[in-house]
From TrEMBL:
It comes from the Bacteria. Residues 5-321 form the NADH:flavin oxidoreductase/NADH oxidase N-terminal domain. Transmembrane segments: none annotated. This is NADH:flavin oxidoreductase. GO terms for molecular function: FMN binding; oxidoreductase activity. It comes from Pseudomonas shahriarae. Keywords: Flavoprotein, Oxidoreductase. InterPro entries: Aldolase_TIM, NADH_flavin_oxidoreductase, OxRdtase_FMN_N.
Length: 362
């Protein structure tokens, strides 16, 4: 498949089409204010990527409850005081010609008490000394996701992306390792998937007919079972509950190591599912124009650009100009990132990623 295929429009179930096949992945950057409001650094970043040629730009993980915070300086969407900054962010993406989405997040058992988080595990054993959420508390968190989507719509975003990956609360509830509940949110796969489905169905019920819903799914770690996740995904695709599925793979080329699908590419386990009008994309070490085009050949409808978008904020435009474009080799210097417009807060966060930022000599 040629590079030109990456620049074909992609209709979605609800609302306007993506103008091309590039989506900016939700990138944690720890540059918001301590109360969750968007900082000028957030505005500057989203303006840069908003002008970068993406079909759709997702925000960083944005917590739907104050107590669900997972990172210092995490963007919030749990109160109306956040609306002004969020509106500025949505406007910045719109002015650049792309679609926009807030990634809705709650840290669950991984909420950080050092910055005001309250660990909220599915089970009693997960966090020493912390009891599992009651059924009523689970329902409150579900409703907080839905309220966050309503705020995103009010702020002018085209949609939301529901964070169901990396052991955060929706992923946690899906895991038979982390969820031993006896109520309607635990036990069978149907019950463990219930929170995710109620969040998605609730958002669709209360938001407008053009509002778009994405779902981020990861497969590795936290006791998640590939076969189960495939079954849940097949149901969501068949019922067209979402507009797009975002497969958060650490490597888009990775191979399944065990189980029923051993030897297959992880991506193929999901691309071979009937998806009706739902779109499917993948993230994971997509650093070049050629790899992005190859993923369309492998069955993706779009690609999610993460680290390559931090290195070069207009990655899609670089690809459009040069079909052989490849990202700069890492690690890069802090000055390289600084000269490209990345804030010191963002650079500090990226220092935590091994081999991304060069260590400075003392």
């Amino acid at each position: 498949m040629s590079i030109s295929s990456l620049f074909e429009p992609l209709p979605l179930l609800h609302g306007p089409a993506m103008r091309n096949r590039f989506m900016l992945a939700p990138l944690t950057n720890q540059q918001s204010e301590h109360d969750g409001t968007a900082s000028q650094f957030d505005i500057d970043w989203i303006t840069q990527v908003g002008q970068g040629g993406y079909g759709l730009v997702q925000t960083c993980a944005t917590h739907v409850e104050a107590s669900g915070i997972g990172f210092e300086r995490q963007l919030g969407i749990f109160c109306d005081e956040h609306l002004e900054g969020l509106t500025r962010m949505a406007n910045a993406v719109r002015e650049g010609g792309g679609l926009s989405a807030v990634q809705l997040h709650h840290a669950g058992h991984r909420a950080n008490p050092l910055i005001g988080g309250i660990p909220s595990p599915a089970s009693n054993f997960t966090v020493p000394g912390v009891r599992a959420l009651t059924t009523e508390q689970v329902e409150r968190i579900r409703d907080s996701f839905i309220a966050g989507a309503q705020r995103a719509e009010q702020a002018g975003f085209d949609g939301v992306a529901v964070h169901g990956a990396f052991g955060w609360i929706l992923s946690e509830f899906m895991s038979p390792l982390l969820n031993d509940r006896k109520d309607q949110y635990g036990g069978s796969l149907e019950n463990r998937a219930r929170l995710t489905l109620e969040v998605i169905e609730g958002i669709r019920r209360v938001c407008g007919p053009d509002f778009q819903i994405g779902w981020r799914l990861s497969i590795e770690r936290y006791g998640l079972r590939l076969e189960e996740l495939r079954e849940v995904t097949a149901d969501i695709l068949d019922r067209e509950l979402i507009d797009y599925l975002d497969l958060a793979l650490w490597d888009s080329a990775q191979i399944v190591q065990d189980g029923d699908f051993k030897g297959q590419s992880m991506l193929s386990v999901f691309t071979e599912l009937a998806r009706k009008r739902v779109r499917l994309g993948a993230a994971g070490k997509i650093m070049s124009a050629q790899r992005a085009a190859q993923l369309l050949e492998e069955g993706c409808d779009f690609v999610l650009i993460g680290r390559a978008g931090i290195l070069q904020r207009d990655f899609p435009l670089q690809v459009q100009a040069n079909p052989l474009y490849d990202s700069p080799a890492t690690p890069v210097t802090a000055q390289y990132l600084r000269s490209g417009g990345l804030s010191e807060r963002f650079i500090r966060h990226m220092r935590g990623w091994q081999t991304f930022v060069q260590r400075e000599s003392l």
